[in-house]
Every structure is written in C-alpha cells, then in structure tokens.
Design goal:
about 130 residues; Oxidized Rhodanese, domain 1; five-stranded parallel sheet; 6 helices; 5 strands; globular
C-alpha cells in the first residue's frame, strides 16, 4: 500500500466537492453550507452559483471572522487552474472555519449546465 497516496486522496475527498454535489446543496437549500464566489464582482454579477455570496480574492482578509463558523464554506473561483479559491479556503481554515473547494470553479459549473444566477447578491445570508 502506498500510504502517501492514500493520505493524499483521503484529504482530497474530504476538502473538495464537485459541482454536482454543490448543485444538490443549492437545490436542497441546505443551510449547513455557505457558497463563496471569490471571483471579481463583475464576473459575479455576470453569473454565479445560485445563493453564492461574493467575496473577491482581494476582500478575503477583510472578511475573516465575519462569516458564520457553524457552516461549511464552499469556495470557488474561475476554473480548475485558478488558485484564488484554495488560497481563500486556507485563510479561513487557519481561522477555524470548516472549508471545501468546488473543483473546477465556475467554468465546470456552467459546462455541466447547472443553473446560473445573475446580478447582485440577494442578501439571503447575514454576515
């Protein structure tokens, strides 16, 4: 058995989530999760995962400690090679938050035909 590989993939599964699973969370309106879009505000307004809040990469530090710690935060950015989401997730994890990253970002969300919300955030979540 390759213990390093086992550990790597166990952690990967624990902290990554696919767009189909996020879709299930969105459709169920599962309040145990808060979806965070870390793209710039113009990209967010043009289209985002329904119910996602926008905290652009350069605003992450200003929001540390402001989000609810009783929810799992799911971060996503533009695409699979964008590192804004994992960087934001790391900062929140260091502050004691439960975090995950949506693999593939918004590109994968759209590619698989999941619903897209446009415009400003509706303020469903209070933080």
């Amino acid at each position: 058995m390759n213990k390093d590989a086992v550990k790597f993939f166990e952690e990967k599964i624990r902290f990554e989530i696919d767009p189909y699973s996020v879709r299930h969370i969105v459709d169920a309106k599962d309040e145990n999760y808060l979806i965070i879009d870390v793209r710039d505000s113009n990209s967010y307004k043009a289209g985002h995962v329904p119910s996602a809040v926008n905290i652009s990469g350069n605003e992450v530090d200003n929001n540390l400690g402001k989000l609810p710690k009783d929810k799992t935060l799911i971060f996503y950015c533009y695409h699979v090679t964008c590192f804004a989401a994992p960087k934001a997730a790391l900062k929140f994890a260091e502050k004691g938050y439960k975090v995950m990253e949506m693999v593939g970002g918004f590109d994968e969300w759209q590619k698989h035909g999941h619903p897209v919300e446009k415009g400003e955030y509706s303020k469903r979540h209070k933080f």
